Amino acid sequence: MIPADHPAVPVPAIGVLVVNLGTPDAPTPSAVRRYLAEFLSDRRVVELPPILWQPILRGAVLTTRPRKSAHAYSQVWREDGSPLAAITRAQALALAPLFPPGGIVDHAMRYGKPAIAERIAALREKGCDRILIAPLYPQYCAATTATANDAVFAALARMRWQPAIRTLPPYHDDPAYIAALAASIETGLAALDFTPDVILASFHGMPQRTLEQGDPYHCHCQKTARLLRDALGRDLRIAFQSRFGAAKWLGPATDATLAALPGEGVRRVAVVAPGFSADCLETLEEVAIRGRETFLHAGGSDFAYLPCLNDSPDGIEMLRIVLARQLEGWLP
Ligand SMILES: C=CC1=C(C)c2cc3[nH]c(cc4nc(cc5[nH]c(cc1n2)c(C)c5CCC(=O)O)C(CCC(=O)O)=C4C)c(C)c3C=C
Ligand SMILES: [Fe+2]
Ligand SMILES: [Fe+2]
């Protein structure tokens, strides 16, 4: 018998916490400023000593970028909010019924809301004494995967009764991921009214220095592209987008590539973004809107942006396979 004054003991459950980057609450300069202040103060993202970086961030960056980025966000904002927030929510909802009784799926954002610490506490309240943390980045990167896991462990540091934790390894070369991407690209290509001369795979960029320091991100992107070439049975060019700051970034740059392709005789292009598990500002505004303008302005005739896996049935089935593998021994 549990004594009447004993703290409640919930029925044990298994949690899955899907995590993505985070996004502003509104497409306004003040909301974007709050978001960027948190994001760009993360030392995993900008690896400069705070004494050097914070004056630049608080001075130049946060006084100019929020207005420009808010305008960009307003071009892709949906009725249900930021695309990244809406799609991540939809992914968690679609995954929820796919795990046996005792499996509880939730989602969180590394920056902004819903916060990682808050959702871990909520899962713990529901009885989850084991939680799989799933940062939805197929390619491992310290600036994305590692910082999401850091935030989890920082939250655990404040808990008396910690849940056991597993973290999702990168899935950049997982056959289920490659097959889902290949199927989605084939479907996207079949729906076009033109045949692209080139398929361009655009990954988010990173400072070149991180490659030299041992971050596997660049290799993971290259391997995804190679496996995708094999799966599609055709060539695929690779480029890196969203350059930020003054340092040298991984190349070739997506915008420069789109500007140069017509000069190489490429008139029709299809762009895919396999490194993003959900469409977001970087794919919908930077690639699908500005990338298109760049390519057509340089003399291209046809441009298509093919969407990310998002919460498509194939995308959700891929995530189910990848997550279920990590739950072995925890869930039947
Ligand atoms: C998919 C992997 C990502 C990596 C790697 C990455 C690295 C990285 N990003 C910045 C700076 C910014 N990124 C921004 C937006 C953004 N970045 C990712 C993903 C990766 N970033 C996503 C999914 C998003 C979209 C968020 C959304 O709300 O839709 C932004 C904010 C937008 C803007 O003002 O341009 C910045 C800034 C750095 C510095 C970096 C690596 C060091
Ligand atoms: Fe980014
Ligand atoms: Fe490499």
UniProtKB/TrEMBL annotation:
<keyword id="KW-0963">Cytoplasm</keyword>
<protein>
    <recommendedName>
        <fullName>Ferrochelatase</fullName>
        <ecNumber>4.98.1.1</ecNumber>
    </recommendedName>
</protein>
<keyword id="KW-0627">Porphyrin biosynthesis</keyword>
<keyword id="KW-0479">Metal-binding</keyword>
<comment type="function">
    <text>Catalyzes the ferrous insertion into protoporphyrin IX.</text>
</comment>
<dbReference type="GO" id="GO:0046872">
    <property type="term" value="F:metal ion binding"/>
</dbReference>
<dbReference type="InterPro" id="IPR019772">
    <property type="entry name" value="Ferrochelatase_AS"/>
</dbReference>
<dbReference type="InterPro" id="IPR001015">
    <property type="entry name" value="Ferrochelatase"/>
</dbReference>
<dbReference type="GO" id="GO:0004325">
    <property type="term" value="F:ferrochelatase activity"/>
</dbReference>
<dbReference type="InterPro" id="IPR033644">
    <property type="entry name" value="Ferrochelatase_C"/>
</dbReference>
<dbReference type="GO" id="GO:0005737">
    <property type="term" value="C:cytoplasm"/>
</dbReference>
<keyword id="KW-0408">Iron</keyword>
<keyword id="KW-0350">Heme biosynthesis</keyword>
<dbReference type="Pfam" id="PF00762">
    <property type="entry name" value="Ferrochelatase"/>
</dbReference>
<dbReference type="GO" id="GO:0006783">
    <property type="term" value="P:heme biosynthetic process"/>
</dbReference>
<feature type="binding site">
    <location>
        <position position="204"/>
    </location>
    <ligand>
        <name>Fe(2+)</name>
    </ligand>
</feature>
<dbReference type="InterPro" id="IPR033659">
    <property type="entry name" value="Ferrochelatase_N"/>
</dbReference>
<comment type="similarity">
    <text>Belongs to the ferrochelatase family.</text>
</comment>
<keyword id="KW-0456">Lyase</keyword>
<feature type="binding site">
    <location>
        <position position="282"/>
    </location>
    <ligand>
        <name>Fe(2+)</name>
    </ligand>
</feature>
<comment type="pathway">
    <text>Porphyrin-containing compound metabolism; protoheme biosynthesis; protoheme from protoporphyrin-IX: step 1/1.</text>
</comment>
